[in-house]
Structure formats: C-alpha cells, structure tokens
Amino acid sequence: MTAAYGRILLKLSGEALMGDDAYGINPAMLASIVAEVKSVADLGVEIGVVIGGGNIFRGVAGTATGMDRATADYMGMLATVMNAMALSDAMRQAGLNGRVQSALNIEQVVEPYIRGKAIRYLEEGKIVIFAAGTGNPFFTTDTAAALRGSEIGAEIVLKATKVDGIYTADPKQDPLATRFARISFDEAIGRDLKVLDSTAFALCRDQKLPINVFSIFKPGALKRIVMGEDEGTLVHV
Ligand SMILES: Nc1ncnc2c1ncn2[C@@H]1O[C@H](COP(=O)(O)OP(=O)(O)OP(=O)(O)O)[C@@H](O)[C@H]1O
Ligand SMILES: O=c1ccn([C@@H]2O[C@H](COP(=O)(O)O)[C@@H](O)[C@H]2O)c(=O)[nH]1
C-alpha cells in the first residue's frame, strides 16, 4: 500500500482529547487517537503534529472573566504543552517515537522548537509534536498547524476535529447544514466558515498547502485520507 503523502501535518483537536469527560485528557480517547496515528506512521509517512488546548484552557474563556488577553493566551499555549506531553507519552506506550518541541522555552520540560532539528527527526521516522502553538498570543493552534506545516514542507494539513468536515454552517448549531466534499480557500474564507480561523486559511492558501478536515472519532478516517481516499472536506487552492 502506497500513501498519497510522504509528509503530513496533523492538527489534533484539544477538545477531542476529553472524550466523554467534561474536561482534561481521557486516557482511552488518547490511546485511540494514538492508534490512528500509528496506522499512518506504519505506512512510513512522516508526521508532524500540532495539538490544541481547548480541553484545558482557551484564551477567550479567560478574557470572558476579565483576564488580560495575552496572559490568557499564554495559559492556553501552556495547556497545549501539557497535551503534547500526554500525547508523546501515549505514543511511547504504543511503541511510537515522539518528540515534543515547544514554541515557548521550557527547556527543563521539553525541547525548544528548532526547525532543522524537527525536520531531521521527521527524516529519522520520529513523530514531532509541536507544542505551544505559534508561541504568540492572539493566534490559535490552527494557525500554528498552517505555520509548522509550511515550515516543514508538509504536503497537506489534516485537521482532526469533532465534526466530519466543513459544513455550510456549524453542524452543532444548525441541523440543516450540509457538508462540502471539497471547497476552495477563496470560498471558505468568503463564507467566513468558522471551522478554522481565517489566519490559518489564508496562510495555507498563500502557501498552496491543502487542508483536509475530518472527524477524529471516525475509525480509519485518517488513514483513508493519507491513502488518497475521499474523507471529510478537502480545502484546495
Ligand atoms: N462551517 C462549519 N463546519 C464545520 N464545523 C464548524 C463550522 N463552523 C463552526 N464549526 C465548529 O468548529 C469546530 C472545530 O473547530 P475548533 O478549532 O473550535 O475545535 P477543535 O478542532 O476541537 O480545536 P481545539 O479544541 O484544539 O481548539 C467544530 O467542532 C464545529 O462545531
Ligand atoms: O499560537 C497560539 C496558539 C494558541 N494560543 C492560545 O492557546 C489556546 C488553545 O489553543 P486552541 O487553538 O484554541 O486549541 C488558544 O485559545 C489561545 O488562547 C495562542 O495564544 N497562540
């Protein structure tokens, strides 16, 4: 079986890590996500991962209580470091070789982000987990996925989230929303579809880096996309 992509950037939803819990990291959910990642790693595909933090803290939630936005965003980025460490450890337990690199320096805990080293790890078959988003407040981990995906020369960004693609409206709010099988960047940005933030869409469009949005809860979906099959929604130039 030959994969359609040699190197991918996988954006994993932080919120998905909760599974059926109200908060935090559900070990069974984490293990099932790692099994999906392993099915692709076993094909020899090089994998960079950006993980979100929505299961622990989002900057906007902090500002809702009066917190300074930048402070809240740094807390959100630290939440992604915790998720990255949990993911890396779950990978270790599954026999995968993961390396965490953080955009914020916490060198006693995880390595700093160094692009050349990340690429070398990928070439060695290690899975690189990019933590702390872009390292800057006022951004999201979707934008970090677009940025790191561009930096490492990924052929596609795969956004693994809680819905099975991009819809005409948020399917969790609008039961009449319909799913796109494919959509251009221009149309996705023009329709202001909230499944990814507009900075991430714009960066991927400029870099001609396609995005595939799919459900992380659907077994085998990640592997099907990597094998070149239709799954979720493809955002193209
Ligand atoms: N047009 C749309 N099509 C699909 N989903 C949409 C749309 N508009 C809004 N959404 C919502 O966007 C969510 C996914 O984006 P979001 O970045 O918030 O979550 P995430 O991938 O879980 O990331 P994290 O938890 O790490 O922040 C979906 O769960 C869905 O409810
Ligand atoms: O580059 C970034 C990435 C993230 N943040 C903050 O972290 C949280 C969690 O990330 P999600 O993408 O929402 O999962 C986010 O709400 C921001 O507060 C950031 O500031 N910069």
Description:
- The protein has 237 residues and is α/β, with parallel strands linked by helices.
- It has a single domain, classed as Acetylglutamate kinase-like (Carbamate kinase), CATH 3.40.1160.
- Helix content is 37%, strand content 18%.
- The chain has eight helices and nine strands.
- The chain has helices spanning 27-41, 59-64, 69-93, 115-123, 141-151, 185-190, 198-207, 221-226; strands at 7-12, 46-51, 98-102, 111-112, 127-131, 156-161, 182-184, 211-215, 233-236.
- The chain has a nine-stranded mixed beta sheet, sandwiched between helices.
- The model has no long low-confidence stretch (mean pLDDT 97).
- The structure holds adenosine-5'-triphosphate (ATP) and the ligand O=c1ccn([C@@H]2O[C@H](COP(=O)(O)O)[C@@H](O)[C@H]2O)c(=O)[nH]1.
- It is found in: Cytoplasm.
- One of its GO terms (cellular component) is cytosol.
- One of its GO terms (molecular function) is ATP binding.
- It is an enzyme of class 2 (transferase).
- Keywords: ATP-binding, Cytoplasm, Kinase, Nucleotide-binding, Pyrimidine biosynthesis, Transferase.
